[in-house]
Design brief:
Muramoyl-pentapeptide Carboxypeptidase, domain 2, 255 residues, 8% strand
Length: 255
């Protein structure tokens, strides 16, 4: 299964349930998740397919215009019994139980709260399932993030637990306190290098917004980690370190 770690924790949990439930129901072909979170750069590369790059068009969404970019969507396929071939056939009843296998997966997904791209009246997207928590794309682009009841939302999204009965949030898990932590001033973004970039990377890592290797080079992973931090603590959510990001990071580090 594709790595789901960058999905919103609630969406990840439901996606994992979907794969289990769907594959219990299917007896011939199986279901597999093919895509989860996509960075803006990955989304732009996919958008270019069939336009400026070879291949068929697979999306009408540029970076920042897809629910995948906010960790709220998955794509699926069916896998042949030998495990060697991916299939996007939405009509065949491979297990001969009177209902198309694909639509059996759709039923299981809807039970878990997913909306299906095959129901869209505009761009038909059968492999796509999303869970937005009632937020629009414009709200997500403005920095809002969904909070789902009864689900612990981990670092990178919301850091609180909503109790179904009392609706009283439990105290957030705070990073270890760091006294008088300092960060560079100025603006830093993808492509920058140096000790200042390393300081920013170390701060993101300390705040549990993981970016992989801390190497003093601002690449795509650092941009994604910065966007996740901004989506929780400040605006704009653009993946660029500046005055607002610095102030928000210092506030969290020096608690």
């Amino acid at each position: 299964m594709v790595n789901l770690n960058n999905l919103h924790p609630h969406v990840k949990k439901q996606a994992e349930k979907l794969e289990v439930n769907a594959n219990k129901r299917l007896t011939k072909y199986s279901m597999k998740i093919t895509h989860g979170f996509r960075s803006f750069a990955e989304q732009n590369a996919l958008y270019a397919q069939g336009r400026t790059k070879k291949g068929s068009k697979v999306t009408n969404a540029k970076g920042g215009q897809s629910m995948h970019n906010f960790g709220l969507a998955i794509d699926i396929c069916l896998i042949t019994p030998d495990g060697k071939k991916a299939v996007w056939d939405t009509k065949s009843d491979f297990d001969k139980d009177g209902k198309a296998d694909w639509m059996e997966v759709v039923e299981e997904a809807k039970k878990l709260g997913f909306a299906w791209g095959g129901d869209w009246k505009g761009f038909y997207d059968a492999p796509h399932f999303e869970m937005t928590g009632g937020l629009t794309l414009a709200q997500l682009q403005a920095g809002k993030r969904p909070v789902f009841k009864d689900v612990e939302v981990e670092s990178g999204f919301s850091k609180q637990v909503i109790d179904k009965v009392t609706t009283k949030p439990k105290p957030p898990v705070k990073p270890a306190p760091v006294k008088s932590y300092s960060l560079p001033t100025g603006v830093y973004r993808e492509g920058d290098k140096g000790k200042e970039v390393k300081q920013i990377q170390e701060a993101l890592d300390k705040l549990n917004f993981k970016l992989g290797k801390i190497d003093s080079h601002w690449g795509q992973h650092t941009t994604d980690a910065m966007r996740r931090f901004q989506s929780v603590y400040c605006n704009p959510v653009d993946g660029i370190y500046g005055k607002n990001s610095r102030a928000a990071m210092l506030k969290q580090l020096n608690k």
